[in-house]
Amino acid sequence: MPPGSLASALEHTLLSPSATLRGSHASRWSLPPFIGGLGVGITQDFRARAPWYISDWTDAWNYRVIPATTLIFFANVLPGIAFSLDLVETTQQYGLSEVLISCFMAAFIFSVLGAQPLTIAGVTGPITVFNKTIYDIIEKQPNAPNYLHFIGWVYMWAAIIHWITATLNWCNFLKYVTRFSCDTFGFYVSWVYLQYGVQVITRQFSGGTDGAFVAIILALLMLVTSFLFQALSKRACFHSIIRRCFADYGMPISLVAASGMAYWGRFNSANSSTLPVGAAFRAANGRAWLVKFWELDGKWVGIALPFGIVLWILF
Questions:
Q1: Coiled-coil annotation: which residues (predicted)?
Q2: Domain assignment present for 200
Q3: What whole-number distance in Å separates Cα of residue 112 and Cα of residue 245?
Q4: What backbone torsions phi and psi does residue 123 show, to the nearest 5 degrees?
Q5: How far is CA 80 from each of CA 119, 236, 315, rounded to the nearest angstrom?
Q6: Whether the predicted model's global pTM rises above the 0.90 cut
């Protein structure tokens, strides 16, 4: 190498000490393949899950699935009851039937078409707060639109953005997101659950103190009994089969027992508030099941877009 070339190379290295670092880490900071890679992530997910897709269904023929299904059922019903109570009192257009059916439809479609048969889906607190906030906003507007039509377009916009996100592989950007945001959002979800639990109990005082105190007693009874079953399942005082039953069915037994005691003896005479429900297989307030969201005015369709973006961020 000529002396001049060697000197210029050394000078470039001294002036730019990060040049080699940039070269060595270039592949690490490469962006997702937008051009020529549309839908690559979806295809890779299907290819990765295809070898185990059938076994995910056949492996369910096991006794251990029964207690797991029972636990997940009640784990979905409890927040569904709490959140649907808030929605039906606020909007008069949402109820427990809508919440449970929507959870079933979302879980069924995602488990079958999403190549994830063992997916667990359920309602969460932030979505309930989001729906209630939208209702409070649009009801204050002059010539307010139909709430269900508007919220239908919010969900439609969120679905479209989710499809775009999956097609353009935007999920790859999650590797640049720290766990701090995930933990913060998890804390928020947990706090919403606690807040709604307390809110459901405090609503009992509007119907009288007797019903409110009975509700508090039953809530504490269910909580203590559930932990008692879990503690007994770890003790050597019973046979292993009995301890396994305590661990598997302790929470469902506590829930059913506490709910049944509300109709027993003097507890029943306290007239505690119960969940407002309609006839079987009927939507809230007697409305039709089909929401004709396509009849919404174009102005409100555009206004629903920012709310759809917020819903996309929540997911």
A1: none
A2: no
A3: 31
A4: -80, 150
A5: 18, 36, 18
A6: no
